[in-house]
Amino acid sequence: MNNNFNDKEMLQAKHRLEEAQARNRQKERKARTRRLIQEGAILESVLPEIKHMNSDEIKNLLLQRLFFGNMQP
User: Fold this and answer.
1) What are the residue ranges of helices labelled H in 1-73?
2) One Pfam family from the UniProt entry (predicted)?
3) I need a labelling partner for 30 at 20 to 30 A (CA). Which of 5, 20, 47, 73 fits?
4) For 33-57, what is each residue's pLDDT tens digit?
């Protein structure tokens, strides 16, 4: 009976750990989502023309501006 009780305690501890890890992953995902939204808003405020571009166009614009300055293609 004592061994069965220890097994049950171990299983409960394992589940508590898994739940804590899941909560931590969710918290990290929410923080990442918030950061990405904020950074996107900043980018959009600095370069309003990106509102009408797809992701590849935005990436190319940023690479062009980073490597070639403000020169237009």
Assistant:
1) 2-46, 55-68
2) DUF3847
3) 47
4) 999 999 999 999 999 999 999 999 9
DSSP assignment string, 54-65: -HHHHHHHHHHH
The residues, any chain, with a CB within 8 Å of residue 37's CB and separated by 6 or more, are none
Query: 57 CB contacts (<8 Å, ≥6 apart)?
Result: 50
| Signed CA dihedral, 48, 51, 57, 60: sign only | positive
Report the sign of the C-alpha dihedral through residues 38, 44, 52, 61, in that order: negative
Which residue is listed with tokens 């590849």? 56
| 64-73 residue pLDDT tens | 999 988 655 4
